[in-house]
Design a protein that fits this description.
The protein is of the alpha+beta class. The protein has five helices and four strands, in the order αβαβαββαα. The longest helix is centred in the first third of the chain and has 14 residues.
């Protein structure tokens, strides 16, 4: 069992490891709350890849992520190591046409780079 410090460090590593990561309730295929579902729909429409963590299967992350991010609710989207926000913020960015641009230039760790 990891202690609180290790859990928070693990969360920070996940946020660094993935260019875009969504902490959500459920999975992109089967979201378990309306807010997570709306964010997944927006991200699918934007057409950019994103990693996800199902916080319903990760109670330690669900408990400690709000302290790491200073954001109390889920889902939470991080791009390039920075918290973008939750459902309302993502909907607003999408409506203003700014969300897709946040994905520009992201490099996935296992993606092959063109020589």
């Amino acid at each position: 069992m990891m202690d609180e410090k290790e859990i928070k460090e693990n969360i920070r590593e996940q946020i660094k490891q993935y260019p875009a990561i969504l902490y959500m309730k459920g999975t992109p295929q089967f979201p378990q709350c309306g807010f997570s579902s709306r964010v997944v729909d927006i991200l699918k429409r934007v057409g950019q890849p994103f990693a996800y963590i199902n916080i319903l299967q990760e109670p330690e992350i669900r408990q400690h992520l709000p302290q790491v991010s200073n954001w109390p609710t889920f889902p939470q989207l991080f791009i390039n190591g920075e918290l973008v926000g939750g459902c309302d913020v993502i909907e607003e960015l999408d409506q203003e046409g700014e969300l897709a641009g946040l994905f520009d230039g992201l490099v996935w760790p296992d993606a092959e780079e063109d020589a």
